[in-house]
Structure prediction request, 285 residues.
Amino acid sequence: MAIAVLVLARTRNLFSVVVLAGIYSFLMGAVLVALDAVDVAMTEASVGAGVSTVLLLSALALCRSREARPGERPWLPLAVAATTGAMLVYGTLGLPPFSDPDAPIHTHVVPRYLQDGPQEAGVPNIVAAVLASYRGYDTLGETTVVFTAGVGVIVLLRRLRRAKDTA
Amino acid sequence: MSQFGPFSYAITIFLMVAGLYIVIARNNLIKKLVGLSIFQTAVYLLYIVPGKLIGGTAPIVAEGYDTYSNPLPHVLILTAIVVGIATLALGLALVVRIHEAFGTIEEDDILREEHAPR
Prediction:
């Protein structure tokens, strides 16, 4: 995965950048399966590797598919990125150890979800139960975001078509 | 297995920093968007990794299993993936419009054209 990202940063042909991004998403899906997040992995494989590749390719079809030149003066962004990385490393030092059952993430509300979820929501899949039942308002907000984005895309691309008609 | 924790954090941070670098350093707008989605996937990892319990299974309740990985980050990240694809679609639509208006998707060319006297 890291190799895919490195090649991606160096490549200037945007078509291979998009294909590499798809490969990267599939690898991420495989990692998520290994981490027991099957629902997330399924979404990542279909949305991340499927839909976003299609979107990027269709945008490429409308634009030029080659990056003109590598950016000049890479030192400032490199310094910013390195500083952020150092701060993140410092932050991870305070996190609880991996797979510790007593970590706060495993003791807060989740035991209740796992214990009462099947009775209260009626589905054995706790992810679906939390998504649609316990945190249903989150999902409502999410669909609002997606709707707004869809409206925005339609408005932007309709103006494009009208400009083409008049030209 | 005690080595896996630092290793996974290292991978996550590397991906995050690489995405950030692509967003800042590259001039091409489509490549910036790809970098943005790499940054997002790094955030997915950061959320999912602490939820894993060794010996646990996926959080689908069934007979014979009593250890499950934490379902809450999975839910949050499902939402994040969908919002991320919405952001990507909107950004690409903006890029297509910019390409229509300026004839280029390179950031410095756009800036030069903006400041050039007409």
About this structure: The longest helix of chain B spans residues 71-102. Chain B has a mean pLDDT of 79.
